[in-house]
Amino acid sequence: MKATDPATATRRANAPQPGRCRRLVLVLGDQLDDDSAVFDGFDPSRDRIWMAEVAGEATHVWNSQSRIAIFLASMRHFRDRLRARGWPVAYRELQTTGATWTVEPLPDRATQAPTPSSGPDDGGETLAGQLRSALGHLRPSEVHAVDPGEWRLRRELQEVAAAAGIPWVSCPDRHFICTPEEFARHARGRKQLRLEYFYREQRQRTGLLMDGDQPLGGQWNYDAENRESFGREGPGFVPVPRAFPPDAVTRGVLDLVRERFGSHPGALDRFDWPVTPADAEAALDDFIDHRLPEFGRWQDAMWSGEPWLHHSRLSAAMNLKLLAPRRVLAAVEAAHRSGRVPLAAAEGFIRQILGWREYVRGVYWHLMPGYLERNGLGADEPLPPFFWTGETEFNCLRHALRQTLDLGYAHHIQRLMVTGLFTLLLGVRPREVHAWYLAVYVDAVEWVELPNVLGMSQYADGGVMASKPYVATGKYIQRMSNYCQGCRFDPAQATGPKACPFTTLYWDFLSRHRAALAKNPRMSLQVRNLERSTPEQLASIASQAGVLRASLRAAVGPKPPAPTAG
């Protein structure tokens, strides 16, 4: 008898067999897309969907309670929608202790549709471990998946499939407009990557806000019109975003999170996020009708007690793929062309979605995994413990941090020019800043969070994401908010008992990095301003900054557990 070569034997072993799963279709917590390419050709008589809740994803970084809750609630609703289609789903559900698998057996051609039954749970609390167990028990011929939104998970899960000898089939991610391969072509040969050029290409490619081959209104962006502050009178009346009170499924998740992850930062008392596509569509309509017309003008402004202002509250729904960006972009453009929304507001929002969101994803996949290790400014301070509690005498930070912990949300200027600015000026290790942002925000997925933090916020990538470090004194926060009212620190002072820490650290930052910053044309004016200070003044600033760093370094407070593997 002729011997069978190993490759042929493997193909035969993995070939579909009666009663055996043909495709195991992976769906992760940020892939809740009803129209995902992973479902193309799905045959419920031969294929099975695999979803798993694992505690390791809540502890890899010290996830806030609201971030854990939005992922789990959205996943469970998605599972229920799939099962309503009659599609078999193998689903691991966390309990207050342990977890339970519900595995729907594939129908035997001679039997009726099966009823759910408990399955094995011997994979531990990592997605990789659970997938390894599933491949052994379910024995699929192939694993089909859209690439995870995190390089770590893609590597780990693909390695599990490879070790099991089961082909991994990567499906295109139709949620995004620009593929990683298209971004790589855009980046090829460029000395610098810049959003503006990428954004113009995407406008031309999609036709959004275009008049033939020219931008609608004659300008590519209206950023100069979108930087106003409220002034002393404040924002006035702003329609409150539509809330989505938790249903029974979501309430069950909230109870679970309180019981099992109650030691994690944050709170759930005000949890009302959209966790289904229908909710996300309603949130989009609410934003366009009530807040988008004023979004552009006030998008950078901040005000105490007003977390939402004119912002959309859509980023989490889009990042979990409950809401397609093409749907958002089309609706916003239509609102402008119908006369309901000014061009500056529509363009400013479209630039965030079509431009910035697609751009940061391109940068992430183009530069990972090495991008995670970048620390271009040599920052080496620990993250202050008050970032996990919001308990600080610095008024602006207290407002931004408590809002973040209460809601899992802060808008882009609060992230960039309050919390991010402070860690940049203080010199906190970029990996720690990254871990905090990934942990606390409901819209945080690593592909979008990491470039925003390491590149835009912390300038740790040396200028890949941004052409300059975004640094300012406390005067910027004073101009753009009312946070300085009632604060004991004076943003005009860099030294002395009333000196604003932002102002002290700003001048210290310029002084410490003067040689490098002087080579940056966009920083030349700020560096020249530094030269007006005497050596004695600079020494006093450095001394006060050193005392501040030492006090924060010695501060006692909660510190997150070390990140877990997987």
Q: Overview of this structure, please?
A:
Helix content is 45%, strand content 6%. With 566 residues, the chain is an alpha/beta fold. The protein folds into three domains: 13-171, HUPs (Rossmann fold, 3-Layer(aba) Sandwich), CATH 3.40.50.620; 180-353, Serine Threonine Protein Phosphatase 5, Tetratricopeptide repeat; 385-553, DNA Cyclobutane Dipyrimidine Photolyase, subunit A, domain 3 (Orthogonal Bundle). A seven-stranded mixed sheet has the order 5-4-3-2-1-6-7, with helices on both faces. A two-stranded antiparallel ribbon has the order 8-9. Strand 8 and strand 9 form a beta hairpin. It is globular. The two termini are 46 Å apart. Mean pLDDT is 92; it is low at 6-19 and 109-118.
Keywords:
single chain; 566 residues; alpha/beta; Rossmann fold; Serine Threonine Protein Phosphatase 5, Tetratricopeptide repeat; DNA Cyclobutane Dipyrimidine Photolyase, subunit A, domain 3; 3 domains; two-stranded antiparallel ribbon
Question: How much helical structure, as a percent, in the residues?
Answer: 40-55%
User: Which CATH class of the largest domain?
Assistant: Mainly Alpha
Structural class: alpha/beta
Q: Might you state the CATH topology name of the largest domain?
A: Serine Threonine Protein Phosphatase 5, Tetratricopeptide repeat
Which segments are poorly predicted (pLDDT under 50) over 5 or more consecutive residues?
Answer: 6-19, 109-118
Roughly what is the average pLDDT, rounded to an integer? 92
Q: What does the largest sheet look like?
A: 7 strands, mixed
Radius of gyration: 25 Å
What is the level-2 CATH architecture name of the largest domain?
A: Alpha Horseshoe
Number of domains: 3
Beginning-to-end CA distance, first to last residue:
46 Å
**Strand segment tally:** 9
Major beta sheet, strand line-up: 5-4-3-2-1-6-7
Tell me the number of helical segments per DSSP (H or I, 4 or more residues long): 22
What general form does the structure show?
globular
